[in-house]
Fold this protein.
Amino acid sequence: MHAFYLREAARSFRQHRGLAYTAIVSLTAALTLSGVLLLLTHNARVTLRLIGDRREMVVYLKDEVPSSQRDVLIGRLTDLYGAVTYVSKEQAWQEFGRQLGDPSLLEAVDDNPLPGSLRVKLKPELLNPAAMEQAANQISQFPEVDEVRYGQEWVRRLDQVGAILVKGTLAVGATVALAIIFILYNTLRLTVLARRPQVEIMSRLGATDRFIATPFVLEAMFEAALSAFLALALIFGLQQVMAARVVGLVFIPPATALAFVGTAIACAWLAAMLALSRVLRAVGP
Amino acid sequence: MITFERVTKRYGERLALDDLSWHMDEGEAVVFLGPNGSGKTSILRLVTHEIQPTSGVATVGTFRSGRLSRGHRALLRRTLGIVYEDFRLLNDRTVFENVALAVRIAGRFAEANVAPRVQFALEEVGLLSKRDAFPTELSAGEKQRAAIARAIVNRPAVILADEPTGALEERSAAEVIALLKRIHGEGAALLVVTTRAEVAIALSTRVLHLAQGRLESAASPAGAAPTGRVR
């Protein structure tokens, strides 16, 4: 019986090629649009994650902290917040000289005013504004600590950009999902109406709605799947062209691509169920 | 089997059936004879639940008129075999596929049994040699025989025929009537509506005369007008 439904779907596709091709072109366009955004969002998130992974906290130490006390502090910070690197006053001075570009400029300064510091590469679960603020407050309570800096504003903005990208992708995704449903809903209505005599005859022979609808549902799902694969191929081509110009641009991961196709098929199924539940009532005697 | 109790059917202002009561038993054959517009097709449409009575009750087997679900309506139709004047074959399928469709719709048989059943039905109506032909390649008589094969392939308890010879020339009409008689002889109940008195006579069964939606009289075949259409 499953083979019968597939044959019926193929028959309907062949007989209404014009409608089917129109639907596939429209769906491919809509899916490509959302796929391009998905590609850009994915790459933006990859970049954000890379930047985010580099987020660290600088803990400035008081000058008078003895090395034994400092080692205890390093041990505690490592346990609680992440990997700690000690930068001595001298190292900080040298680094500053390098950043200035001309170390001779510092020769005029008698004394090294820079404090020793601990650079804490935070654990992944602490890489969000709230957790970072809380960690900074806690660390600043240690008696050995003079000041804690982590680029509070910068972290907050980075987080906001990430959130906006997610919301944008969801909004465009939802819009495209609605577009898919709208396109297939109308295509299926037209297909069923074009096959009205056949549907009426089947209904008179005692066919259930499910029997009549299944080939149309399969046809819609096939069209959506084909359109999604075509859209992915177009997006892949675009990514390859852009990757030659933009370093590090990557294609969306296989799991996301599969979810993309799956979502398109699910939207097609929903559109088919909505359209057929209405149109079969209108057409069937 | 089929019972109408004081069934009235109106289409807006137009009265199609007026307080009609009748009954047919299992295996019986009944012919409704009447002119165009007398309500014959409304009777068939009430039996198949395409329409509902304005008042009264139409019962087919265990299905009573009223608000049958679409699923139950489909189930009812699967217990019937229907033959239409205009054949209602699917032109994009072969004769074999048209008949096989009814078997698949019935959903009672495994895929392996579809072909043998269709073959048997086509043999019964003498159309096996045309199994791969499309309806557009058949004569009117052959189309009607294909439609009859589709109606009998699931061995329904009742065969409904709406003007089964209406589109056929004399010889094909005689063949179709002979076929219907044979099917009835094998045990199926037969409900035929026609404007042609000779169909009623040829079927030699109970004839109900219908005029303006009312039964005029119940008659034996001899009571039917001898020839020609009832106008």
